[in-house]
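Sanity check. The docking grid for S-adenosylmethionine depends on where the pocket ends up, so I'm generating a full predicted complex first rather than guessing from homology. Inputs follow.
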Amino acid sequence: MNLTDYNEIRALLSRHGFRFSKSLGQNFLTAAWVPERIAEEAGLDEQTGVLEVGPGVGCLTEQLSMRAGKVLAVELDKALRPVLAETLAGRENVEILFGDVLKQDLPALVREKLPGLRPVICANLPYNVTSPLLTAFLEAGCFETVTVMIQREVARRICARAGTADYGAFGLFVQWHCETELLFDVPPACFVPQPKVTSSVIRLTRRAAPPYPVSDEQLLFRVIRAAFNQRRKTLVNALCAGIGGMTKDLAEQVLQNCGFDPKIRGEAVELGGFATITDEIHRNLFSKL
Ligand code: SAM
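Predicted complex below; grid placement will be based on this.
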């Protein structure tokens, strides 16, 4: 069976009485080159254990199972149980778990279901929960790479560099944990039903260590969030509004000590600059408490 053929998918799903759910982000692929290329980009071999989120009818699962040691696919929609039993029958290295991936203890799941394998993530994600999913994958700390299709707009934000309109707090959070690559775009015509937006595939590769030394990682993310909550303000004003105890004089002093113009905005500061500013704030404000 061709799991990306539009007519075959429609016939399969109607035979099982399946209805697409918008709230579960169900847009299934109907172009064979897309799951093939996503699976290729995930860098799989016999030693890899793949966690896939949302197999749908299993077109990407099939491609992953041809390349990896094992695929663990977590699907929230139980209506897909009989569909997947049919489409993935005979694929010995695929295990399907029905449940919400956001409610799983991911490191425990990897230990239990993918033992002895190099854990990676590869998926066409449900777009409505992209940020919580990516946050959970990064915080789990056990996946070497995350190769996923998401909304192009979000992909651009994740990979954005300083000084661009897409640059922001979420991208910096991801870049702190991973190297990011924007791989290729996929048009709406490659899905059923067609989404309203273009999609992009990205690859995140976990860093062995943080990219810059920083004394207080939590404070770093508070500083970054403060900077972008008040995007139109100067960084001095944004820090005063977002960091308790910060005064205008101190914020100006901090920026000057770090070699920045006190009129700079957060969107012009690179990740390394935020780490330096965080250390200076920590020295001046918190180490004295
Ligand atoms: N992999 C298929 C494909 O590429 O054609 C389907 C991808 S579709 C964009 C997203 C899939 O994620 C759907 O099958 C949906 O039911 C499932 N899903 C949505 N939320 C989920 C969650 N929280 N946990 C697990 N699966 C979820």
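Relevant for the grid: Residues 107 and 140 are 6 Å apart (CA to CA).
Also worth noting: The pocket of S-adenosylmethionine is lined by residues 24-29, 53-56, 59-60, 74-77, 100-102, 124, 126, 129 (CB under 6 Å).
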